[in-house]
Amino acid sequence: MKTLTLGIPKGSLQDKTVEIFQKAGFNIYVSSRSYFPTIDDTEIKLVLIRAQEMARYVEDGVLDCGITGEDWILENGSDVVRMAELLYSKRTSNPVRWVVAVKEEGKIKKIEDLEGKRIATELVGYTKKFFKSKKINVDVEFSWGATEVKAKGDLVDAIVDVTETGESLKANGLKIIETICTSTTKFIANKTAHKDDWKRKKMEYILMLLQGALEARGKVGLKMNIPEKSLEKLVKTLPALKKPTISMLTEKGWLACEVIIDEKEVRKIVPALKECGAQDIIEYPLNKLIY
Fold it and tell me: The pTM is what?
């Protein structure tokens, strides 16, 4: 049997990734003692790998494909196929940012003030490239964690750290003076594996379902019956992703209507639908939305 070896990120993205796979229709079981989760698809072999290392293993062909951040692809300088962007992170669906942060009340106001200074970060390679491109000489050291504390405690002059909202940096008395890159989650493939027809089609199939699950977030379906005479007014009322699906009912003068909308719009829309004469309104959740 042919098998696709797929790496999923261990660590901060792990739970979110498993959740999205489940929404896409894949049931994954992760044991705390194993790096090889089980999945209810015999054609997929899963491997848990830290996002920081994923691109390197995919490039080397140890993995056929994997999920990691654009930041770690850049950090490793990996030559891989970026098949798709998957818009999710550990807290939001927004890109994360790698930023230069310094003490809020310190003397450093802009990145030029870091000339000759020390910077701590986990993103060492890309940070060095960034400051070299700006012609600013800095000493960049690897940080094993708790990076914010190092700037707050004057162990270093600045840090380069990843943030989604900036709240943690602010809580630690730090301010952002520069963004060096933004990153979203990417589905990447080994170049040789991508040329294999079976593996590429399998990857595309997985991606279609994952993207469908991501598209469905925050959206619901609405079904209702409406008087035929009210159809034009109802269509103008609905903030639909597409035109609503309309079908005939056996009862003369009535139509069935189905539409997909943002969940946050439901409480505003339902009273308006009732005013249009809609009846038997049903709201239902979505797992996947595939265009």
Answer: 0.84
Count H helices and E strands in the chain, helices first: 10, 16
C-alpha 251/C-alpha 246 separation (Å) is 14
CATH number of 219-285: 3.30.70.120
Rounded Cα distance, 153 and 188, in Å: 38
Contact 175, 163 (CB under 8 A): no
Phi-psi region of 77 (alpha: psi -120 to 50; beta: other; left: phi over 0): left
Written as one string, the DSSP assignment of 194-253 is HHSHHHHHHHHHHHHHHHHHHHTTTEEEEEEEEEGGGHHHHHHH---SSPPEEEE-SSTT
In whole angstroms, give the CA distance from residue 2 to residue 185.
27
The per-residue pLDDT for range 9-43, each reduced to its tens digit, is 998 889 999 999 999 999 999 987 788 999 999 99
Q: CATH homologous superfamily for 4-92+184-215?
A: Periplasmic binding protein-like II (3.40.190.10)
End-to-end CA distance of the chain: 31
- Asked whether 258 and 221 are in contact (CB, 8 A), the reply is yes
**Residue 287: count of CB within 10 angstroms of its CB:** 12
* Sequence ranges of the chain with CATH classification 3.40.190.10: 4-92+184-215, 96-182
| All residues at 6 or more sequence positions from 16 whose CB lies less than 8 Å from its CB, including other chains | 88, 89, 90
Strand partners, 149: none
Among residues 98, 108, 150, which one has the least CA distance to residue 128? 98
